[in-house]
Each structure stands twice: as structure tokens, then as C-alpha cells.
Specification:
The chain is mainly alpha-helical. It has helices spanning 3-10, 21-42, 48-82. The longest helix is centred in the last third of the chain and has 35 residues, at 48-82.
Length: 95
């Protein structure tokens, strides 16, 4: 699989295969912040707080994203559990 296709998978919605605005923005932010960190390291102007800030920002974002996905999953599951079970009119038997 070409590299271009692999990169597109990072910013596409897996269900609809359309570009995701939030994933695209996150990907661009990752590229820019990584470039800045590498640039200040190469030029010798890096300070340790930049590494801490970089790692903290991406860990917090990752954990926040996981929490949001978990809450979304729980909400969908709760809504699904509240729906009455649809049958075709025939009663189920346990025999």
C-alpha cells in the first residue's frame, strides 16, 4: 500500500471513508508541533520544558479522546438498551 494511502487512513472516517475535519486538524497540529520541537532541538535552542509541554499536550489529548469515545459508546449502548426489542410477531420459546 502506498504511503499516501496510509496517511489518508489517518485522517479518514473509517465508516464513511470521508475526510474527518477534526482528525485532519489534529494531524496538522501534530506535524507542526513535531516540526517545531525538532527545529529547536537541531538549532540548539531547546529547553527541557518544551519536551514536557509537547508530551503533556499529546498525552492529555489522547486520553481526552479516549474518554470522549468511551462516553459516546456508553451513551449509544444505554440508548440501545432502552429500545424495546423488535420481533416479527412470533414469540420466542426457550425449548
Amino acid at each position: 500500500m502506498p504511503l499516501r494511502m496510509k496517511l489518508l487512513e489517518l485522517i479518514q472516517n473509517p465508516e464513511s471513508r470521508r475526510l474527518s475535519t477534526s482528525d485532519s486538524a489534529l494531524f496538522v497540529a501534530l506535524l507542526i508541533s513535531s516540526f517545531v520541537l525538532v527545529w529547536v532541538t537541531v538549532t540548539g535552542k531547546v529547553e527541557e520544558w518544551l519536551y514536557v509541554a509537547y508530551l503533556t499536550a499529546w498525552v492529555v489529548q489522547s486520553q481526552g479522546s479516549k474518554q470522549a469515545a468511551l462516553q459516546h459508546y456508553k451513551a449509544r449502548k444505554a440508548a440501545k438498551d432502552k429500545e424495546p426489542e423488535k420481533t416479527d410477531g412470533a414469540e420466542k420459546s426457550d425449548e
